[in-house]
């Protein structure tokens, strides 16, 4: 092809090249900002429990163990903060492995109803401790066969149900429902707990994001659970969403791919 104006073409090419480079630089800047924020969040999240542990140890040392009841209480609190640090390390390890692609998604076919029942069994004791009733709302006769990484979806369910205990109300209910979306199934975890204010909803799945309500409730958590959940669901090319009303409760819903059932053509009945 012979161009009518070769100089104009070269100018256009340079322009496109420059705008492509600008996009790349902007992306690198964004990543750098994200990395800096991530590191500062990590150090902040570690500092809080570490300072608390240090405080309790110093208090016990100052008291010279004269008040043994008090010392026992402080030790208990220090130990809770050690737990918090271990959860944090475990979740950080998990999310960095997931994000680096070190843990691949191992697809298998399984009945989603069976997995929900298994997760319920494993969380029964915890639900009792929180005085929360766990119910499985099942409208369909047939169990849904899905294709996904069973272990990772188990973790998604455990994280969501565990949150419903942490942010639920005593004597409340957590229900898990399954809906047929034709090619997919939608699984919803609903609680009647503290709920989430609307302005917090867009940030909920960010790493380390915790609402002021949950921070002030002093509930142990890493702020990474939902980031892990989102990562797992998106790695399956599926979606997750949340709806909530502050003071009334929340619903987290995610989709899974259904195994396509082979439809055999109807055999015509020959009439003799
Ligand atoms: P963590 O529970 O460890 O703080 P998550 O990533 O699981 O971290 O959740 C992030 C935040 O989202 C929580 O701190 C809490 O503020 C809010 N949240 C999560 N689940 C619920 C829920 N079921 N009800 C109310 N708030 C919730």
UniProtKB/TrEMBL annotation:
The terms under GO molecular function for this entry are:
phosphoprotein phosphatase activity; phosphorelay sensor kinase activity
Question: What portion of the full-length protein is represented by this chain?
Answer: 83 to 354 of 354
The Histidine kinase domain covers which part of the protein?
41-260
Q: What class of enzyme is it?
A: transferase
Instruction: Reply yes or no: does the keyword Membrane apply.
Output: yes
Q: Name one GO biological process term.
A: cellular response to phosphate starvation
Question: Which EC number(s) are documented for this chain?
Answer: 2.7.13.3
Record's keyword terms, sorted: Kinase, Membrane, Phosphoprotein, Transferase, Transmembrane, Transmembrane helix, Two-component regulatory system
This chain's protein is named: histidine kinase
Q: Can you cite an annotated GO cellular component?
A: plasma membrane
Listed under catalytic activity are: ATP + protein L-histidine = ADP + protein N-phospho-L-histidine
Q: Give the superkingdom in one word.
A: Bacteria
């Amino acid at each position: 092809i012979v161009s009518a104006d070769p100089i104009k073409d070269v100018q256009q090419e340079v322009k496109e090249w420059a705008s492509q480079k600008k996009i790349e630089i902007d992306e690198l800047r964004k990543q750098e900002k994200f990395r800096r924020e991530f590191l500062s969040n990590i150090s902040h999240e570690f500092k809080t429990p570490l300072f608390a542990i240090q405080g309790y140890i110093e208090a016990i040392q100052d008291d010279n163990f004269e008040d043994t009841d008090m010392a026992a209480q402080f030790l208990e609190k220090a130990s809770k903060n050690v737990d918090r640090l271990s959860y944090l390390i475990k979740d950080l390890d998990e999310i960095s492995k997931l994000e680096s692609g070190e843990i691949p998604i191992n697809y298998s076919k399984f009945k989603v109803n069976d997995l929900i029942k298994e997760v319920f069994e494993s969380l029964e004791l915890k639900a009792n401790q929180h005085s929360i009733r766990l119910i499985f709302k099942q409208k369909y006769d047939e169990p849904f066969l899905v294709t996904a990484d069973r272990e990772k979806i188990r973790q998604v369910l455990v994280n969501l149900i565990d949150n419903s205990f942490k942010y639920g109300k005593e004597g409340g209910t957590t229900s898990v429902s399954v809906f047929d979306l034709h090619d997919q199934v939608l699984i919803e975890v609903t609680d009647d707990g503290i709920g989430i204010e609307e302005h917090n909803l867009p940030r909920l799945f960010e790493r380390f994001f915790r609402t002021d309500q949950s921070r002030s409730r002093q509930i142990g958590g890493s702020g990474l659970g939902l980031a892990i959940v989102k990562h797992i669901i998106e790695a399956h090319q599926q979606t997750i969403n949340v709806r909530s009303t502050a003071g009334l409760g929340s619903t987290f819903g995610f989709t899974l791919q259904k195994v396509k059932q082979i439809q055999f053509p109807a055999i015509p009945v020959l009439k003799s």
